[in-house]
Amino acid sequence: MRHLLPSAALALAALAGAAQAENVHVNPQNGFISQAVKVPAGSETLYVSGITPDTVAGAPSTAPFGDTRTQTASVLGKIGAILQGQGYGWEDVVMMRVLLVGDPAKGGGMDFAGMMESYNAIYQPLKKKPARITSQVAALVRPGMMVEIEVQAAKSR
Length: 157
Hints:
This protein has a single domain, classed as CATH 3.30.1330.40. The protein is built from three helices and six strands. The protein has helices spanning 4-20, 68-85, 112-123; strands spanning 24-26, 36-38, 44-51, 93-101, 131-137, 147-155.
């Protein structure tokens, strides 16, 4: 019986700690992203596939999805709805992968500033930001698409 009491106390302490566990975001001061995010064991994880933008009503056929800023806003809006539908929020996102196609209006280079405008509209006011990679790719699934984003989110059960 004496051996059971310390074991029971340790088990209760572990359960209490797990209930309070949360993602640890390693952010540089005023950073746009986290350098790293540590997710505690036992967390629930959501993987959101690469999401592409919707077409813009009235947009020209040469740019049916709009510019990079517009496309990023569209994609993030769709991801936000997926997160919310699964009981997650933006601060639960631990990893984001952003794929940008070069913008012909920018000489074929990716419009990082345009992407950041829409990204910052969501993340600038938040304390917890995801780890992130942004890469330029040659093309996406449809002509005119310049943005695809996938995310992973995690939270305590």
